[in-house]
Design brief:
GO terms for molecular function: hydrolase activity. It comes from Achromobacter aloeverae. By secondary structure, the protein is α/β, with parallel strands linked by helices.
């Protein structure tokens, strides 16, 4: 399991500011050379061989999934800002063959006990990127940032969760600028701890992201430490879901909304399935909708391995928030590469579900 096993080991927390030698940061990449850290707000550049994912101590099975495009390794460091904790993160950019200017960007956040490489191979999102011309960006938590590579979604403060969220937003903006992508089509998705962090990023930066995807994520706004995060994962939020969500968007006047798709396994013993429904209520509320009055449920692909139940909070232009629950699925990315830990062949292709939801959506304004 991703976060469940991690929180039991967390007696002491390491802050997200650390001193990291370049050779330690890049030791798991495809090439052995190293670079000096980037200047504040900049990125250090490094390119693994074309067609190979970054080597992040991922499983041997990862080599079974070929990559037709090219990978670039980067380092992002947040600029010094009063009241904000400095963060340095590595990230990896996948450009499919023939990528054009004005392309969309999808940021993908791994879960605990995962690396960017695990997540890239397990989700097989590169297959969609190759076909649709999408730039993929994989930020990676370091073991110095958190010993089990967990994102600090459960600790939303300036020294932890907010600092990481702002750094990830900076990575997304930097990658989009560097590739001359369409700034109105930047999306973010994640698994487990990565899903909850993706939500934190999107809700803090609705002027940057056009839509959000969450797979096996915990309900938002209630946890303030690891113990509370574990409780939310097991039971959901105690307060009304909308009240917990309100705290996350209260600081931003005129919150513009955030389209979102949620995928949740019904047999998940790490993040209880009630979290998926609470997220549905929370994100519908954030988009100005009452799911009790508007939700529409459908059975999809009944009778085969892709069976799932989809519930939408619709508008005249289509669903703004959707939740897909997958019977029999545990704590794993649905329809992924089952040879890679925390991914399952079972269920609908979550990567495709998310991309179909994202495609065509543009950030308002």
């Amino acid at each position: 399991m991703l976060f469940f096993s991690a929180v039991r080991k967390m007696a002491r927390w390491q802050r997200t500011a650390w001193r990291l030698a370049p050779h330690a940061l890049f030791k798991d990449l495809m090439t052995p050379s190293s670079e000096r850290p980037a200047a504040a707000g900049k990125v250090a550049r490094k390119r693994p061989p074309a067609g190979r994912p970054p080597r992040d101590a991922g499983p041997d099975e990862a080599d079974a999934a070929p990559f037709a495009g090219t990978w670039k390794a980067r380092v992002y460091r947040t600029p010094p800002t009063p009241g904000a904790w400095p963060v340095r993160l590595s990230y990896f950019v996948y450009a499919p063959p023939g990528l054009r200017k004005g392309c969309p960007v999808l940021v993908m956040l791994h879960g605990c006990e995962q690396t960017a490489r695990d997540f890239a191979v397990g989700t097989r999102m590169h297959r969609i990127a190759d076909r649709e011309g999408v730039l993929l960006v994989y930020p990676q938590q370091s073991r110095r940032g958190q010993q089990n590579r967990c994102w600090h979604w459960y600790q939303p403060d300036a020294a932890h969760g907010y600092a990481e969220a702002d750094a990830i937003a900076g990575i997304a903006a930097a990658a989009a600028t560097d590739s001359q992508a369409d700034p109105s089509r930047i999306y973010i998705a994640g698994l487990s701890a990565g899903a909850s962090m993706a939500a934190l990023v999107a809700l803090r930066h609705p002027d940057l992201f056009a839509a959000l995807g969450m797979h096996s994520g915990a309900a938002l706004g209630s946890a303030r430490n690891a113990g509370q995060g574990l409780r939310v994962m097991r039971h959901g939020v105690d307060a009304a879901p909308e009240q917990a969500m309100a705290a996350l968007v209260a600081e931003r006047a005129g919150f513009p909304g955030m389209p979102a798709i949620i995928v949740q396994g019904e047999d998940d013993t790490v993040v209880d399935k009630r979290n998926g429904w609470q997220l549905f209520e929370q994100l519908a509320w954030a988009n100005g909708m009452d799911v009790d009055d508007s939700a529409v449920a459908q059975e999809k692909s009944a009778g085969n391995a892709r069976h799932h139940r989809r519930t939408d909070a619709p508008t005249r232009r289509g669903p703004v928030v959707s939740v897909c629950t997958v019977p029999g699925l545990g704590h794993a990315w649905s329809g992924g590469d089952g040879r890679v830990r925390f991914h399952a062949r079972q269920g609908p292709n979550a990567s495709l579900l998310m991309w179909r939801f994202f495609k065509g959506r543009r950030r308002a304004g």
